[in-house]
Each structure stands twice: as C-alpha cells, then as structure tokens.
Amino acid sequence: MTDTRPAPLTGLKVVEISAFVAAPLGAMTLAQLGADVIRIDPIGGNIDANRWPISDDGTSIYWASLNKGKRSVTLDLKSEEGQKIATQLIAEAGTLVTNLPARGWLSYENLVQHREDLVMLRLGGWHDGSPAVDYTVNAASGFPIITGDDDRPVNNTLPAWDVAAGLYIANGIMAAELDRRASGKGQEITLALSDVMLATVGNLGYIAEVQATGNTRGALGNGLYGAYGQSFECADGRQVMVAVISNKHWRGLGKATGLSEKLEMIGPLLDVDLNTEGGRFEAREAIDAVVRPWFAAHTLAEAVAALKDAGVLVGGFQTFEELVTSDPRCSTENPMLTEIDQPGVGRVLAPRVPLQFSGSPVANATPAPALGGDAAEVLESELGLTADARDQLGSAGVVHLGK
Question: What's the superkingdom here (predicted)?
C-alpha cells in the first residue's frame, strides 16, 4: 500500500522578511519541505530584487532561484499601515524568519504582543551585532589564506557561510517548532553569520589544531590535506581530480595506472608508511611525480574510466555550462531536478530539496512567485480582507496588488 502522508512540514506557516542568500535559502528549504512561506518585501522589491544574474528581460535569475515555492507580498513597510498588515500576517503565521534589524515594529518584544507563542529567527552578521556578509566573514575564517598555491588570500566564489547559515535557519525553525508543540511556548532565535563560520572552523578541527600543535596549514593548491589527493592535466588538456583516502583507493591507483611497483618504492625511499593517510600525504610530491606522466598520456575520459574501474575516487573538472549541457546527473534523469516554467526567465531545471523521504515525500520544485504577485490571495486567505478592503489598501499605496 502506497504511503500518502503529506510533506513533512505541511501545516507550518512562515513569514519571511529578508534579502540576499542565507535567510531566503532557509525559508525556501522550509517551503520545499511543505511549509507555507510568505515572503514580504517593500513595494518594488528589497535590495536583492534585481540582483545579477538577470535574464534578457531583466528578471533576476538569482531572486527567482532562491524563492521557489513561496508566496510574495509587497507592502509599504515604512508606513504604519504597512507595518500593521505585516504584523498581522506574522501573528497569523506564528513563525518569522528575518535578517533585518530586530528593532521597532519588527522587534520580538513588539511582535510577541500579537502572538504569544511566536517563533522568530533573526540572522545577523557578527556576534557583536555589527554587519557582515559572506565575503567579509570568510576573510576572517583562515580559508582564503590556504586556498590556492601561495599566501595570497583567495576568497571562495561559493558563499559557503550563507549556504550553511540558510540550512541552520531551517534547522532552527524546525527545532523551535518541535519545542512549541511540546511546550506551547514560542521563542526568539538569533544566529550570527560569523558564528556559522566559527562553528564550522571549530567543527572541522582548525581551531584545535592551532591550539594543540601551534601550527597552521599552508596553501596546498588542489592537494588534499592529511591524505593523498591531487589534480592532473590529461592528454586532451582537461583537468581531473583524484582522491586516495583508503588503502583500497591506494591499491586502485597503482592498478589503474600500472605503476604499483614504482609507487611502492616511494615508501622505503622516503621512510614513510604508504598504507596510512599521513604517510601518503608526506610522500605526495613523489607520488605526483610518478603518476603525472600517466595522466598526461591519457584523455580525461580514459583516465576517469580506468580509475573508476579500479575503485579510485575521481572526478573531472567542468564548467557550469558543461555541467548543465553534458552531465546527466544535472538533468531530469536525476529525480531531484524538474523542469519548470519560471516567469521572466523561461523553462529551466530546478531542484527540490535534496532529501528523499520514503513516507512523506516532498513535492517537485515549483516556480518562484512574481514579486508581490500573491498579495490579493494572501490578504484574503490569511487576514480575511474583502476585495473592497484590498483595493483601498492598493489605492493608498500600502500594498501592491499587481494590477
């Protein structure tokens, strides 16, 4: 018998008032798990409404990608009436995600007067309350110093701390919702982007490493710290990444390349144990020198096939274009991805949440709303406002009704 339970967060209502990456990603994750998420923006959109990349007609692909499956309302949030409507929507939903300063009407102290069991999560920059974005937080993390081949700091183009913060936001809301169901009480949750970075640096051992050993890691290029991993150029000019973690991988590298005997000679020569990750790391330059000519004599496809057959972890480097146009893992062959018609953008592949539930499956991805396009529906369904009342608010410039 097929299990037809609804998506895990069906019934949860969330209001989001935010911009950029982390908070929208967190709220979208909740939406893709079944929550009803209403994003509220100022009329005309928040600071991220037109952020690059943009489509040919000027639609922000960035905004559309981070707001799939939500409903959108735009209000004059500088007016008392706009703030009142936003407050009513927050009180009706009972859950708020924001990265705006929690002061005035948007403070927890004010909002909890309208919903006693309110759950509110606010994302900030630094722990002391000063502002920050992913790139400025990353600059302090230590990672840019060990990225690349020298001591010149290189900021990662992936907004890692925003992405991690977005997933912490989703976890925080779900944890508070479980607590509210058990206790009947809401709470305010605060999260600093810098603490996401520090928690990750600590959890990966970088803080303890400095304190315990007095040492810090240097730049390794595409090398793998503490084990053997390296990138190589193949005969066709393509680059491949190889990772050797286990002894099985190590034996596979020798088998695939036909260089087992030469590789085994490295251990006695350098007095290292090649049956350990640390030993292979210490001997990395010698291993590179032995296997590099093999890669130079084989195309990327040949190298990947041989290494995979031998059980070695391997992956070819590719551009975003190659990923989208040539990699079947980034296609509808992958059930996580669905083709959607995104207004202003066109027909595109869109991911649902990458979790797979056997008993309460989540829906496929749905398009992001038009900015403010759900105002009439939301004001009616959530606040019970009549058409006349909605029109009056629209005429007064309090809400954009999309007419």
Answer: Bacteria
